Amino acid sequence: MKLSTSALLASSIVSANGASLSLLNDLLDIVPILSPGPSSTSTDPNQYVNLFLGADGGGHVFPGPTLPFGMVKMGIDVINSAAGDAYSGYAPDGQVDGISMMHESGTGGAPEYGVVAQLPLTGNVNLAIDNSQPRPDNASIGYYQIFLQNGVEVEFAPTAHAGIYHYTFPADQAANVVVNITHHLRAPSRPYWTQYFTGGNVAVSSDLSQYTGESTFKGGWGEQGDWSIYFCGQFDTPAKSVSSFVGQASSSSLTASSSSQDQAAGVIFTFPDGATDVNSRVGISFLSTDQACANLAAEINHYDVQTTTSQALDAWQSEVFDKVTADTSNSTIATMLYSSLYATHLLPSNRTGENPLWTSSEPYYDDWFTIWDIFRCLTPLYNIMNPDHASGMVRGLIDTYKNNGYMPDARSANQNGRTQGGSNADIVLADAYIKNIGQGEINWNDGYSAMVKDAEVQPPNNNDPFAPDSSTKEGRGALPDWLKYGYITRNYTRSVTRTMEYAMDDFGLSVVAQGLGKTADYQKYLNRSANWRNIWNPEASAKGYSYKGFIQPRNSDGTFNNTNYDPMSCGGCYWGDDEYEGKPVEYGFAVPHDIATLVEYAGGDQTFIKRLDDMFGVYGGAVLGDIGNEPSFLTPFLYNFVNAQYKTVETTRYLINNHFNSGNSGLPGNSDA
Predict the structure, then answer these.
(1) pTM over 0.90
(2) What pLDDT digit, counting tens, does each position of 270-291 carry?
(3) Closest Cα to residue 414, out of 366, 364, 474?
(4) Domains detected in the chain
(5) Is 399 exposed, middle or buried (0-12, 13-18, 19+ CB in 10 A)?
(6) Distance between CA 521 and CA 514 in Å, rounded?
(7) Number of CB atoms found within 10 A of residue 630's CB
(8) Strand locations in 131-254 (E)
(9) Which GO BP annotation is one of this protein's (predicted)?
(10) In whole angstroms, what separates CA 552 from the centre of its chain?
């Protein structure tokens, strides 16, 4: 069967293809127009953006204020929540432990960051005080407000590398602000992936109005080694006294440091009697305290939260919302649309100029959490809506390869890791290449070298205890099987997932190879992209279903492995299983580059339609696909390949109506950026 290069775009929910846009119009009952510049009339996005959409119910969406792809993501950090660990800092209940400068969004594995924090306390300082707050919090684009149990009102707003706080203290209570240099998000339910503080220091100016310092951490979902963040904070009101603390103890010393893991340490600013309004501004940097102070001076030279909020809203309007016009007569759909557009522009973080590892003039993006989660739909959306950012992201991925050895699949705190399936940065590059993103800015020879490195060089094993067979840090850990057998055996974990994704990744290589005139490579990787067929067992069956043929684990001798195999089950669906976060029946559809062959294997157009009908319960029967996990994101759109487009409309409408809503628990799973 011939493989079609045009089919790579099938993974994009919104593509440059007019039919795809028309389909989206029918789907949402609105008329979104993606344009290269501002629309003639602007919609106030604050009418429709719910920053908390997906923040509850396990969605872990970050609801705090930030800029599009902002490095600073200011937000509350909650502990002791009945909802469980607060991976983005926020939880709908519990104790506010700090208000910090950095977060990720939608992380399902474990939290990252929650660093560089302040916490307002009243009276005699007790670091264990219950700072729970009444709900709900108030948030709009570029702005957040909470009322703590101790009577303090807090407002805050961000810039790219800094943030501003406004505290309103009760008039009859002493006003204090705690700067805890060890503060970070934790994962009590997953201690093996929690973060740890490993060292740091803070110094206070002689006039008691400024502080600078650094904090070093390690751990988290990506199992990062030590990394440091630097900070520079200022208050508009000098303190009357500053004391330092380690644990619960305090003293009058103006410096504090700690090197023991997770023992609280920092300084407490106590303001003059009767102080009710206290303002603070803080800059951060991955480079130095001097750079943190320079970032602050360049971005916030005032103490007005509303000024910073207005600047943030302007950035969101010009970079995101002015590119979309919509019929907003259906307020629910409008809220889902605008809130989703907002949430899709939180990660990765634009860290250009803040790379502590190497010197480069190229853009730098961090917090890829993760490419496995977003390559099917989100990065293609960036290529349409934000081609400048999309170009910068691709250039940053290539530059990471040049200086780090491999492009990441996940990356946080300036370190690669973890890779769940394939080397799917290859798809990000291929999609950008065929859409001509960058228009001459991207060095495609270097980009192609990065892709070939993924396809040909096995990375060293990082001995991940969850999958000790091969690297989960970067690249393709199961490459030896791929090159020897043309599929992954159970000698490696996630054998089915990796087989399917390596095939798609190699198709991405073939696209770029063909464009660069590398004819032999084009044919080589095009042929390898058909390797998914090697794990299609035409005799495999599922109880209760009349059709045969499913993907299935395969042994090194070519026989299919029937041990613990059921096409409707993925066991634990985790690191040590054959399939990661998707059943075999779901992964069987994950070949957007070879749909014609898949339709043939499935039994022809009508049987293919029947198989799609069985996935989501739209037409009765069991629900086989999980629209809350990424392997099934593409599947509802495959009706388009067999002239049943109306069923894509019916299915996607059904899924939106039954699994999504405009409320705080509006997602069917964690958002994963």
Answers:
(1) yes
(2) 999 999 999 999 999 999 999 9
(3) 366
(4) 5-32+368-659 (1.20.1610.10), 75-315 (2.70.98.10)
(5) buried
(6) 8
(7) 24
(8) 138-140, 143-147, 153-158, 162-168, 175-180, 195-204, 210-219, 224-235, 241-246, 249-251
(9) glycoprotein catabolic process
(10) 30
